[in-house]
């Protein structure tokens, strides 16, 4: 019981990270109908930018603890958003109106470019950091086993929920969000209403990348070690989460992320750690075979 | 005739290698209702879309209010006083009626309140259905929404593509009455594309007949209604 509760806590905090990245996949898919394969690497860039920010801030000894983390988070979001914007501008926009596979191939290219760029610029070795946030609470004891909720996990969960709340408000309540949804449902009509669709698509990439940056910061702080290749596996899992939740659905992305996080954690805890990725990807295959629209996705049927 | 609000000069539009419009020239004066009639595939919708820059005319000019808008991007054109209720209505199905209407005004940066009031006076049905998802409306209601949404931007020129298509005669009559009322009360200029030539020519001040990408006839609504060629081809020859 205590052991299961611990796994639940771990699974949720991991799932939040997947969910944040999955939103980027699902939003871009919703608006231009492509899978942005470079998105996992945008997450990796976000983690590296957080690392750089963290080292700058803490080595200066100016700040520590929560203030430092908030500053790191903000810096990483801004610069990662710039990367996201640039990738769209350089690699996808020129191919709009081209055949369907072109931007997909371009995305795979961008993924390789980003990985190699970080590998060259930052080196190929793994980068460890000192734990920044320590401490936590013991929720309950069961014999020798103590259920821990670390301050870091609390931070991940609360930050993610806060950012999701802001983001949900943005998409459902603001004119910008309305324009995004309009482009998603009928881009040509949106431009007939005077909406600058290219700009709206750029904004989508910017938002997706800044959410990935949040995930990158959280990943760095939680696991304390990153390298240029983390974007691949985490990216593919977040993509799995987006498909499981129903690609195109924002609540679906978060739900899918949580489920993938939980499945992976429980599988590792009760079966075998070595096969945790197999478990996650089996879910992808099962979803695609038996429920292609995902949990909250919709079949493309509209009343005419 | 006063200086035209919209003037299309020798416009040719292509879809790939197919020439959909072959040097079309028409003009619409302020306050006029002009209709464009023609068979399926004659290029009527293409002409309306070309005015909006999507697709862009390959040759010829589109002049709106004295300004050449041929090369402007679509969203610029639509912010400058032109609105379209397009073929197939194209309401945003997974948004509420209210949100669809707001989108009509949004890029103009104007207060949506007067537009909403006008929309609900014109089509009271929409007020009842404000919170409903547009995809669940009936065809006639969707058409009303598409027109109301176009009007939200307070356009000077309204482009209407087949507003009666697929609607029950009573509903289509209601929509034609709304257009007449708007034109009479606010002086709104309307360019109307219709297959229902009889109703369209009765409503319009002037009309053009488009046949496979070329204008073959023009005249007042009454004149065209009386022409035997028009009667045979578009009015079922009665």
TrEMBL record, chain A:
The keyword Cell division does not apply. Keywords: Amino-acid transport, Cell inner membrane, Cell membrane, Membrane, Transmembrane, Transmembrane helix, Transport. CDD domains: TM_PBP1_LivH_like. Belongs to the binding-protein-dependent transport system permease family. LivHM subfamily. InterPro entries: ABC_transp_permease, BCAA_transport_permease. This is Branched-chain amino acid ABC transporter permease LivH. It comes from Teichococcus oryzae. The keyword Cell inner membrane applies.
From TrEMBL, chain B:
Belongs to the ABC transporter superfamily. It holds the Pfam family ABC_tran. GO terms for biological process: L-amino acid transport. This is ABC transporter ATP-binding protein. Coiled coil: none annotated. InterPro entries: AAA+_ATPase (IPR003593), ABC_branched_ATPase_LivF/BraG (IPR030660), ABC_transporter-like_ATP-bd (IPR003439), ABC_transporter-like_CS (IPR017871), BCAA_Transport_ATP-bd_LivF (IPR052156), P-loop_NTPase (IPR027417). Keywords: Amino-acid transport, ATP-binding, Nucleotide-binding, Transport. One of its GO terms (molecular function) is branched-chain amino acid transmembrane transporter activity. Residues 6-237 form the ABC transporter domain.
């Amino acid at each position: 019981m205590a052991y299961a509760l611990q796994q639940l806590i771990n699974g949720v905090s991991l799932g939040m990270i997947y969910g944040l990245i999955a939103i980027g996949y699902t939003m871009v898919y919703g608006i231009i109908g492509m899978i942005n394969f470079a998105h996992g690497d945008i997450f990796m860039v976000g983690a590296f930018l957080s690392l750089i920010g963290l080292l700058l801030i803490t080595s200066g000894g100016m700040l520590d603890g929560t203030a430092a983390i908030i500053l790191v988070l903000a810096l990483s979001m801004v610069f990662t958003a710039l990367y996201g914007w640039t990738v769209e501008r350089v690699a996808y926009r020129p191919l709009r109106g081209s055949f369907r596979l072109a931007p997909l191939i371009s995305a795979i290219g961008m993924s390789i470019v980003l990985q190699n760029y970080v590998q060259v610029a930052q080196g190929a070795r793994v980068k460890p950091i000192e734990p920044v946030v320590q401490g936590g609470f013991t929720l309950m004891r069961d014999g020798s086993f103590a259920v821990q909720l670390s301050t870091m996990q609390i931070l991940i969960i609360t930050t993610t929920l806060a950012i999701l709340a802001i983001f949900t408000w943005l998409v459902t309540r603001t004119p910008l969000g309305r324009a995004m949804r309009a482009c998603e449902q009928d881009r040509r009509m949106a431009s007939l209403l005077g909406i600058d669709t290219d700009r709206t698509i750029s904004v989508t990439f910017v938002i997706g990348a800044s959410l990935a940056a949040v995930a990158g910061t959280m990943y760095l702080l939680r696991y304390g070690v990153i390298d240029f290749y983390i974007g691949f596996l985490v990216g593919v899992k977040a993509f799995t989460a987006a498909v499981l939740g129903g690609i195109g659905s924002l609540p679906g992305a978060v739900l899918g992320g949580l489920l993938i996080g939980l499945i992976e954690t429980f599988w590792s805890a009760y079966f075998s750690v070595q096969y945790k990725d197999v478990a996650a990807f089996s879910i992808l295959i099962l979803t695609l075979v038996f429920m292609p629209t995902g949990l909250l996705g919709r079949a493309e049927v509209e009343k005419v | 005739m006063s200086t035209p609000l919209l003037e299309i000069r020798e416009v040719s539009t292509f879809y790939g290698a197919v020439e959909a419009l072959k040097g079309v020239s028409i003009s619409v004066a302020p306050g006029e209702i002009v209709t464009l009639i023609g068979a399926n595939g004659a290029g009527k919708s293409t002409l309306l879309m070309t005015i909006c820059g999507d697709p862009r005319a390959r040759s010829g000019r589109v002049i709106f209010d004295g300004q050449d808008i041929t090369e402007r991007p679509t969203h610029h054109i639509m912010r400058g006083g032109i609105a379209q209720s397009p073929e197939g209505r194209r309401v945003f199905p997974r948004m509420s009626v209210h949100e669809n209407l707001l989108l009509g005004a949004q890029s103009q940066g104007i207060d949506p309140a007067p537009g909403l009031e006008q929309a609900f006076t014109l089509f009271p049905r929409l007020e009842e259905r404000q919170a409903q998802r547009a995809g669940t409306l009936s065809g006639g209601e969707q058409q009303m929404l598409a027109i109301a949404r176009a009007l939200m931007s307070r356009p000077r020129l309204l482009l209407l593509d087949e507003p009666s298509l697929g609607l029950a005669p009573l509903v289509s009559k209601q929509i034609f009455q709304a257009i007449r009322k708007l034109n009479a009360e606010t002086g709104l200029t309307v360019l109307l594309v219709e297959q229902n030539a009889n109703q369209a020519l009765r409503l319009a001040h002037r009309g053009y007949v488009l046949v496979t990408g070329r204008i073959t006839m023009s005249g007042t609504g009454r004149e065209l209604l009386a022409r035997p060629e028009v009667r045979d081809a578009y009015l079922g020859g009665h």
